[in-house]
Amino acid sequence: QVQVVESGGGLVQAGGSLRLSCAASGRGFSSYDMGWFRPAPGKERVFVAAINWSGSSTQYADSVKGRFTISRDNTKNTVYLQMNKLKPEDTAVYYCASKGPTGGWTYWGQGTQVTVSS
């Protein structure tokens, strides 16, 4: 089982940057894909970015492509989300998740708040 804890959220002006961190503990972190999600109107959580177990492959939602970068350091059991050129519409609670043995997004953190002021 993997436990994940997000950090790094805060208040930033539009056009600014933040880096979120997701610290994982438990067995299997380096074997699993990791991702970031956030709520959207009418939806509990939508996909933002994901990275495979080795860090060799990444995916992004169209809304953040070119502005956000996901990375991981398996020696530190940590995943990062570098967010640049932030927009007010990026304001949300950001959740980190890990896939599990069944292949689905299984392990979730409590979230970290990101607020972008205009």
Strand and helix order:
EEEEEEEEEEE
Question: What are the segments in which pLDDT stays under 50 over at least 5 consecutive residues?
Answer: none
Q: Could you say which overall geometry the principal axes of the C-alpha atoms support?
A: globular
Helical amount: under 10%
- If you average the pLDDT, what whole number results? 95
Using only C-alpha atoms, the radius of gyration works out to 13 Å
Number of helices: 0
- What structural class do you assign from the helix and strand content? mainly beta
Give the termini distance in whole angstroms: 40 Å
**Percentage of residues in strands:** over 45%
Secondary structure: number of strands? 11
Major sheet description: 7 strands, mixed
What are the key terms here?
118 residues, 4-stranded antiparallel sheet, mainly beta
Describe this structure in words.
With 118 residues, the protein is mostly beta strands. The chain contains no helices and eleven strands. The chain has strands at 2-7, 10-13, 18-26, 34-40, 43-51, 58-60, 68-73, 78-83, 92-99, 105-108, 112-117. Strands 2, 4, 5, 6, 9, 10 and 11 form a seven-stranded mixed β-sheet that branches. A four-stranded antiparallel β-sheet has the order 1-3-8-7, with no helix packed on it. A hairpin with a 5-residue loop joins strand 9 and strand 10. The termini are far apart.
